[in-house]
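Blackboard transcription, Thursday session:
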Amino acid sequence: MRIRRSNMAAMGWPDCAKSLKGVILDLCGVLYDSGEGDGVAISGSAAAVKKLKESDLLLRFCTNETQATREKFVGKLQRLGFDISVSEVFPPAPAAIAVLKERGLRPHLLVHDGLLNEFDGVDKTNPNCVIIGDAAENFSYKNLNEAFTVLIGLANPVLFSLGQGRYYKETDGLKLDVGVYMKALEYACDLKAEVIGKPSSTFFQSVLNDMGLQPHEVLMIGDDLVNDVGGAQQCGMKGVQVRTGKYRPSDEKHPTVKADGTVDNLAQAVDMILSQRAH
Amino acid sequence: MRIRRSNMAAMGWPDCAKSLKGVILDLCGVLYDSGEGDGVAISGSAAAVKKLKESDLLLRFCTNETQATREKFVGKLQRLGFDISVSEVFPPAPAAIAVLKERGLRPHLLVHDGLLNEFDGVDKTNPNCVIIGDAAENFSYKNLNEAFTVLIGLANPVLFSLGQGRYYKETDGLKLDVGVYMKALEYACDLKAEVIGKPSSTFFQSVLNDMGLQPHEVLMIGDDLVNDVGGAQQCGMKGVQVRTGKYRPSDEKHPTVKADGTVDNLAQAVDMILSQRAH
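(Written on the board underneath:)
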């Protein structure tokens, strides 16, 4: 018996675009590639963001960016030509600060120098937990050893990792991300880190709450199959992967995560979404 | 029904010392604590090694030391007062070089500067595998990223880790060991490293072959519960842990590895062994 293809795909990509109420975009690898200075915008992405903003879809940005304060990296994106404001962007650091307050924890920070200001108002004396972000060059042997020494000295060691990415793409090549150092400290201290950021469902849900939408009404578009697409799907959203940023062809044969759709770039994704909704 | 304690312990520590033919000692944390300069000898250990050498027991040293060539670290131990020679010592680097030859592999090295000479005769052009050792300060973000870039660019990435220790003790505190960076690269590249060194049974067996003894005839003494004691037990030897070096009280309640005996230090272990054999 033949099943009509249009029915099979009815709830899939890109047909699902018809019933969407909102879109969440990842930043690095979707809007731009990071690197020296501001990095470079990905061709067509600025125009695509503009089209989404002019549509009836709600738009938010969900990122594991932890190399700078929100103000700094939103400023960078504006300079690259993107229509984006701080209130539309959800990174892990503010979510981490909320968790610290809730649980009365004082962090030892192993993060990028650019992120330190986000933690200005946070008590860091006599630390009883460790927070790691994408510290890049700050991931020296000395600094990792220092974070380890704090953790191993605690009766109940708590490690927060701002994301769990393996690597990301900069203009001069792939770079190791925070998840790699999370695994390092997990092994050193024989503990399990708490991830704050994508792919945590709690984190995605906080963005949905801000939008006032249900997961099935929202599509996530990212370049990271596991953290963007897989995380969004776990949370009940559809997830589409772009073939920019850290995308690798092997992602399309991943053993556990299957994107609802794979597109060449954000411009193509947005054109497909808007053309579905035009019918 | 009461079971007589002497029967229960008949095959255990220290009774097993009666039938031993050889002893294998770990170096760092058993003979000495590493640190600035040569580090410091652990009290009573030099005399204990001397007593073992004067006994009828065969003696070898099995170490995951990869910060220096054998000649260098054996020289250090001699300066610290130990009667020890290069031919009695089994570290991972020479075992790794044998594996490279056997499999026609050319390594990219992320190791301590002090170890580089061991690999002088090895072809390192156009690398098709990565070897990591206890590189200490060489575990910079830049160097780890470089090793990652080699691995991620290979169709069949091969990572050799010279040991898998979590941390070791230096005179100024605990230091992260190679296993931590092995886990980091395993996660980054989604692969499983091949461990050369303790606790690999292949590695322990190469020492037993050199001694011409069976596993049940040999006792391993180390400060690392998992890699020294657990590794030796997996190989069929008895394993005793010393409460020096990286020993932590929680080791005595470890969920999976139980030492055959735990002693304060090497001096006490050797006295117990020799007194059992005197009866």
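Lecturer's comment: Residues 102-196 of chain A form a domain with the Rossmann fold fold (CATH 3.40.50.1000).
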